[in-house]
Design a protein that fits this description.
The protein is mainly beta. The chain is about 10% helix and about 45% strand.
Length: about 190
């Protein structure tokens, strides 16, 4: 294949399928939170769900701790929210939890409920810090680092029957709004 034919096909492909380099400037909606979710876990009658979060930020003497809010949520397998708890601040090296007793159908064929746990935290924010006498501006990132875990406990004796720390970040789905050429940054 000659070089000319390759280039003409590449240009034709760009024209057919588009190319971000030739498109007008775009702005994307900003994500205001980070959401992590567990996988589905089954709960029987006689069991409870306990969603825990541990603030991994260490306690440092003389340093003001970053405020660490979180929202703890439990959903069923149909996506319906079963319960929610908003926490305004989890101090460094401390934990918070949400305990939920799901309603399990009495019939043996349906004597199980599938649930998943969700933890929502604010996105990290950067605060510009100017160094005196220097044009360099350094950014200080303020964020809390939470470690979630999900337990299924036995109601009769309180023992943990299942525990998972396998949480995944949910993908960001946003709307990209095109901005007319020459309008970007205004």
């Amino acid at each position: 294949m000659s070089g000319f034919r390759f280039h003409s096909r590449a240009v034709a492909g760009l024209l057919l399928f588009g190319c971000p380099f030739f498109s007008p400037a775009q702005t994307a909606s900003t994500q205001t939170s980070i959401t992590v979710t567990s996988g589905m876990v089954g709960v029987n009658s006689g069991q409870s769900v306990r969603l825990n979060v541990l603030n991994l930020q260490p306690v440092v003497t003389g340093v003001t701790a970053v405020v660490c809010p979180a929202t703890l949520e439990i959903y069923n397998d149909s996506g319906a929210q079963l319960t929610q708890m908003q926490i305004t601040d989890i101090p460094p090296a401390n934990a918070a939890n949400l305990v939920y007793k799901p309603v399990v159908p009495a019939t043996p064929a349906n004597a199980r409920v599938e649930i998943r746990a969700v933890v929502v935290t604010p996105t990290p924010t950067a605060i510009p810090v100017a160094t005196p006498g220097s044009p360099i501006v350094m950014a200080t990132v303020t964020a809390c680092s939470l470690m979630p875990s999900l337990e299924i406990t036995n109601d009769a004796n309180g023992s943990t029957q299942v525990v998972t720390t396998d949480f995944r970040t949910t993908p960001l789905f946003g709307v990209v709004t095109p901005v007319a050429s020459g309008q970007a940054g205004k």
